[in-house]
Amino acid sequence: MSYFLQGFGVFLGVVAGTAVTLFAAWIIRVKEASHRKRNLIFEIGMNIRKLEQWLERLNELRNAVNGDALDSFYEYFDFSKILAATAISMYKSGELYKHLSHEEIDELHSFSSYFSSPGEQFIHNQISQHKRFFEESRLKDNLASWFKTGKPQAVSDIKFWEQKFKGHRDRLSEIIETLEEK
To answer: Does the pTM exceed 0.70?
Structure first.
């Protein structure tokens, strides 16, 4: 009988050890998931702050265009510096789908495609073209062409980017609210 009790005791010890190990692993996974969610909220918040900075730069660009001083604008829109490591990691693992709707995930994709190295290059090419047109018009003493075509196009491009920045800022703020509610 003592062999049976000894064997039964070993069996219970193995079961208890396994249960404790599984429970500890579960707690660690839950804490890590919570940490990733907090990191995602932090990343999105940092990106919102970047959008706010870029909106200020757009305002400076608008002032330079309207003041016919575009040659004095030297700000840089560093789109490639958005934070997305946690969002990409959570997307690849499928964890993002636990927290966000398909529309919200689509917004994150849209944001990361606009605000990337190609987007950065695109806006700087636009600004360079407007500056070049302004400089050429001024050097040729033909500012009338700048006022007629160049300036309206520059203002139109600024409005486009301003709408993009504000739209993404508002939708990213909504995503943060969704994440904080869950």
So the answer is: yes
